[in-house]
């Protein structure tokens, strides 16, 4: 039995089966590559689900985390640290807003905080989008549309209306003067990288403003450079009231953040919300290192360039659509063979993700070079051929 098989057997006997069997046992990584316990190398085009912005073992991230941990690792929120304050300042300037930040440890927690903030408007009605994903805790789950995730846990916190993503008419009909907030992803990630029609964010801003409802953008997956700009909503001309962040923010160290703009930042006051770990100095130092590296290495431009190269190179007779922005890319296959494509890719040393039976998602490290992307694109037709002829299953 190989080393991987042994660990997988121990996993099955000791880990709760919430994710199904793990596909690989990974032991190390460098840049956009990871290695499994049997010594095979993979090009990681999932990036820990849009998390490993700087790839694996980036020296700037390793250095910042190591130094902070050697200096001061955790203090609780009875105290603060300079990295925590600096990161909050940095996020506010990145969003070009006056506001305040609440730090959490994950995307679902950032959204949970925003959910609670929305209740402090005195209203309870929320509007979310079909195809949305906002996390697995009860509040975030109440805003997540997928029936298979929700139904085993009902009743969830109520008063949520779902409207088709990108449908401004349906949104206008759903939002009333009793609506606390409209929550949406500027690009839907888990749904398979779905973009709204042009102008949708602007219409959402107008509709929420008309009714005094908050516009809450979930940038947990799409934010922090993933789409080639700091935020996916940059360039839309829209200033949201609330933004939630997590995944790529600290490049793999757990963190989440909720930013509330202007007067909305005081909706949560002393005693309204809290966390033991949120804003931990190690996580904040990691996020600062990620932001500095994205700037120093010109990664926003790299994301746009390599994203274009990927989108062009993914075209294939079996691919009916390629969608995306920057290095958040989804494609549709003409048959329900996404799992076979993932399996074939793995045999060719590439990590991919199937988000539906016929959709593949790419969310590679932002450091992925054109050469590394081309290395994958050369083998892409072979991966598809094998998946379609069933030789990978
Ligand atoms: C992943 C994701 C979440 C949940 O984040 P976790 O860190 O897994 O809790 C929330 N919103 C969006 C848009 C996401 O992609």
Question: How is this structure best described in words?
Answer:
With 393 residues, the chain is an alpha/beta fold. It folds into two domains: 3-57 and 298-389, Aspartate Aminotransferase, domain 1, CATH 3.90.1150; 72-296, Type I PLP-dependent aspartate aminotransferase-like (Major domain) (Aspartate Aminotransferase, domain 2, 3-Layer(aba) Sandwich). Helix content is 37%, strand content 18%. It has 13 helices and 15 strands. A hairpin with a 2-residue loop joins strand 1 (26-30) and strand 2. Helix 3 (59-71) packs antiparallel against helix 10, helix 4 crosses helix 10 (281-296) and helix 11 (299-313) packs parallel to helix 13 (370-389). The longest helix is centred in the last third of the chain and has 20 residues, at 370-389. The model has no long low-confidence stretch (mean pLDDT 97). The site of pyridoxal-5'-phosphate has 15 residues, from helix 5.
Decide which structural class fits the backbone: alpha/beta
Our measurement of the CA-to-CA distance between the termini, rounded to an integer number of angstroms, reads: 20 Å
User: Main β-sheet: number of strands, strand sense, barrel status?
Assistant: 7 strands, mixed
What percent strand? 15-25%
Order of helices and strands: HEEEHHHEHEHHEHEHEEEHHEEHEEEH
How many domains is the backbone divided into? 2
Specify the CATH architecture of the largest domain.
3-Layer(aba) Sandwich
Bound molecules: pyridoxal-5'-phosphate
> What CATH first level of the largest domain would be assigned?
Alpha Beta
CATH topology of the largest domain: Aspartate Aminotransferase, domain 2
